[in-house]
Amino acid sequence: MCFPNCKHKWFRKCLSARNSLTWIRNMATSEMMLSLGLIERDVNADTLWVWCYPSISADLREVLLRKSCLPLNSQVLHTFVFGQYCRTWYYITTVEVQEPTALKKVTHFSIVITAKDFNPEKYAAFSRVLCRTYVKHGSPVKMMECYIAVLTKGDCQSDENGSFLIKDYDVRKAYLAGSLKDVVSQFGMETIILYTALMLKKRVVVYHPRIEALLEFTRALPGLVWHRKDWSILHPFVHLDNDELENLKLCTGYVAGFVDPEVRDRSDLFDVYVNLPDSEITVSQNAKEAMAMGKLHKEIGNFIVQAAEDMERTDAQVIKDISVKTKEILRNLMSLADEAENSKLTLETLKQRHYPPATENFLFHLAAAEQLLKI
């Protein structure tokens, strides 16, 4: 069911209740959580998985242990990180144990939640309740009770450790939590490179040595292509380990975040490389043709900058403005497709319109990305 090194006696009781809990999970059809786990570092600086329900694969355990800052024995504590691996979202909250506490031999611990959905604020809030519960009781039993309560009822009420209600965390709020205005403020007209890359479903790699800055920046980028509402392209915290890179390479297009500066030498991983500390964006040699800029790009870029610089407009309004502009481009593209055979565009159809070369090139690759191109 889980790990042979599990050290809590109560876990055997959970094993005997496995069938009941499985039935409960099946009844909670609307719930997105997949598992709840605990990693601890003890007074001897040993870090290990303590338990997890339900069990997860050894590969996923290894990745999640890597994402937790506990094995590093570093003075820097990343209180909350999130990311995606093999289509599973993970949310890790790490706490330093302060005396006095029921946890006698534990110096730090990480609460690990895996889920189907992207919603950092939701799982950060739930993790805070779980952390307070674990510190108070020193046993995962109460945490398991909270987990089951949320799994079955959608809420966890506690006067001592705080309350959590799933209905307070709409996915739309999670999508809008990133700030496109900050992205445009940093990169100005070069934001059009990011917009173009995402529209064409290219591979965007972002580097920053600080994970918090990386998470904040990368989560905002899918908002540039709001018409897709697809945050599955987001891989905000990737290590240069083979298992993670092989998983990343299975994706057609993505936004991937790295804290390792050596990623700049891995041109096989990106079409566009963003050096966040230096505010530099580089287009790889292989992507230069598809990413060629022209009059249309300048027009869109100016539109994005003007919308973002309007102090009276919120991030949500800026996203909507960009989305309206994008849908206008897509409508024009689809009207061309409607005129063509089988509602599919060809390069010949575009050439008949006598667009400027850069515009023709962009529309051709956009048609391919939107599956409007005749092959």
Automatic annotation (TrEMBL):
Keywords: Endosome, Guanine-nucleotide releasing factor. PROSITE patterns: DENN. The keyword Zinc-finger does not apply. InterPro entries: FAM45 (IPR042431), Tripartite_DENN (IPR037516). This is Protein FAM45A-like isoform X1. GO terms for molecular function: guanyl-nucleotide exchange factor activity; small GTPase binding. Residues 1-375 form the UDENN domain. It is found in: Late endosome. Pfam families: SPA. Signal peptide: none annotated. Belongs to the DENND10 family. One of its GO terms (biological process) is regulation of early endosome to late endosome transport. GO terms for cellular component: late endosome. The gene is LOC113057131. It comes from Carassius auratus. The lineage of its organism: Eukaryota, Metazoa, Chordata, Craniata, Vertebrata.
